Predict the structure of Carboxypeptidase Q.
Amino acid sequence: MKRNYRTKSKIGLLALFLIFTQVIFSQTNDEVQLRKIYDVALDQGKSYDWLNYLSNQIGGRLSGSIQAQQAVEYTKAELDALGLDQVWLQPVMVPKWVRGTPEFAYFETDPGSTTNVPITALGGSVPTPPKGIKAKLIEVQSIAELDALGADKIAGKIVFFNRPMDPRQINTFDAYSGAVDQRSSGAREAAKFGALGVIVRSMNLRLDDFPHTGGMDYGDTPLDQRIPGAAISTNAAELLSATLKLNPEISFYFKQNCKQMDDVQSFNVIGEIKGSTHPDEIIVVGAHLDSWDLGDGSHDDGAGCVQSMEVLRIFKEMDYKPKRTLRVVLFMNEENGLRGGRKYAEVAKKNDENHIFALESDAGGFTPRGFSFDASDTNFKRALSWKPLLEPYQVTMLVQGFSGADISPLKNDTIVLAGLRPDSQRYFEHHHSDNDRFEHVNKRELELGAAAMASLVYLFDTYGIETAGE
Amino acid sequence: MKRNYRTKSKIGLLALFLIFTQVIFSQTNDEVQLRKIYDVALDQGKSYDWLNYLSNQIGGRLSGSIQAQQAVEYTKAELDALGLDQVWLQPVMVPKWVRGTPEFAYFETDPGSTTNVPITALGGSVPTPPKGIKAKLIEVQSIAELDALGADKIAGKIVFFNRPMDPRQINTFDAYSGAVDQRSSGAREAAKFGALGVIVRSMNLRLDDFPHTGGMDYGDTPLDQRIPGAAISTNAAELLSATLKLNPEISFYFKQNCKQMDDVQSFNVIGEIKGSTHPDEIIVVGAHLDSWDLGDGSHDDGAGCVQSMEVLRIFKEMDYKPKRTLRVVLFMNEENGLRGGRKYAEVAKKNDENHIFALESDAGGFTPRGFSFDASDTNFKRALSWKPLLEPYQVTMLVQGFSGADISPLKNDTIVLAGLRPDSQRYFEHHHSDNDRFEHVNKRELELGAAAMASLVYLFDTYGIETAGE
């Protein structure tokens, strides 16, 4: 337990004794407070009810949609009802991309002999021409393979990116990182060689029939050279690949009429409890309120939103008066723009606010395993010193690494950024697909995540961070 | 890394150096072997296919049922196909309890105004009379409350045990332990005060409509004084309790025609790979092949069976030759008798076999969090020394505690007993109910459990245990 960093300086025996007794006392008090947090979360939790509403009454809430606006209004009203010191909407302009009518695709082995396959337009994709695109397919496993094939083999075809996520990865986010370049950059790269479109194997470790959307980036590809991209379900990707091995001459047809509209007005939703002794030190707990339009966005990231709201509700319920200012921030537009995260950091900087700690939950509402920290070694060690307090709650994985997209613009030399790390095994079965549904969120797992977050917020509120100057 | 316990003795510098290099080498080799185990389990796993057959082609397999016999034959054939050194059936007589026709229950608020509620007979219960039982209800929260009320308040009534599992427990098995006495002893205790029957709130942390069965024990209650017991779904328990508060005079009706038959012949299924250098030291990995008759027994304990089989299959696939003899044991009759576990230990003792390590998986096919050990401090410390090897696989919870029911009869002064500890949050939503279904088992989570088990078996095979005499 290396919690009291003041012991570094030279101090007398009496001071040592006083500090020692204080450490003993505060340790016991910390244990009591964490137990209270968990009791409130597990016995009187509100997060599951909120998520039920957000998922089943509002549903998928892509930036710029009516549902996104409904989610803003709903969560603001719920935060208002908590009796926080202040609740407000922070305006932010967001991109608006719409899917249009359902996509349609098939492959044709012989003229007239077609097999329909489930696809979904990638977020941000251009549409196909109104009559769709029909062309021969070329299957590749990577962008490197695409480059090696070159224009001769690619021009005039539809490129089929089919590298699976690696099942041997223990953390499924590592498997995602190892495959997602096909989705994010595939269309941009294939266009360079004259491809007509790209079909990407869904980012899903399981074989099933759900196509998974997700952001793609055309970079500086001129508007008239952009080609449409769609994801195909893993089952259909397997079928297509097997069919191509039998007959490389099959053709593929797909049609989508998605569209990028003008930016529209939206909001980050913010609520805060003012700090009692260090009101100028701000702690943020947050998640993103927008989701993709498939499914209802329960895991990505409705869960994170209701957990973040629950953190402040738990403290109100416990009648805990934070020393620092605690803020819940529901960011708009993480999925296809990060405008909300950037806006929040921009306003914070303009107002010369001092953020000491920000915690994000954006990895699903599963049993929490731990947290990952983007922080100085000193502050990471401080977090590690709290491990014995978190272990009784099976929160044991405290590691250095990525925190979260929405809080990343807050990064500076002193702030501690952290991300909740739930068990990752089932996440990519749901992520960005129609299979991201409320029924796949477990009440207890969701609540345990909220309690773990509240515990870490409590500890940073109680002990603060070490700033560079100290 | 405190793996080499020989460093305790006085040794020269050269020996120290040799041992040091050996430790370094074996550490690296251990890392390589564990990675291989996980690669085979996650990339070429067979456990999920086996479970699919066991659950969907055979289904629930209560001791003495045709399904239990089918499960014996199926798993033996699959073990035969692995090319182990020996596969055999170990005869064991098991109790046979049958549910009969579906149970039926309702409560009546006014004459003729009834509400049906889902119940299931507790395993081992006597039937109601053919016409059922109808009586006033008395709700209690505990056996202590029952005792305090006494015969005056209890005689002639149906006792309704309604203490919920405590949602504040982090490990749901602790919540189970804190509530299950109502199910196991409720009927026995209520009979002492002249109750006509007992209805027990299902052991389920979630509010839903599934009644959960499970074993009950009449102890030495004479046959003619035994009263029937049934579980009621948590939703119906809540409804019943609320209704009783409005009107304590409501009556309850239930009917069940379950029956205890004569014992029948069954089998433990056993397969082994002979040890190359210490064939007389036996390592067991096992689970129970029987299940309750509701649902298909996927989590309890089909998952453990296929994981145990997978451990030996992984070693065959890796072409790993164990030093010790590795045995997979699929125990019969854990749920309502433990006859298989007792028989296995009895035969092992008769044959003077030397079991050094036994590992059981009987807590569901969820993401593995760690293992609990019933072992000497020295051997527990040895297991702890392997933590750095297991941590990359997120297997971090190595604790002392209960191992497993089926291996418990093997307990002696030297053997190391251990149980796989998967994430427990969702287990009791499925346990002993029609909601224990294949669709609720996740392929990766199941495979990660098998790989964790194989890793621990590998380590005990490589390093052995410290026996009392050393």
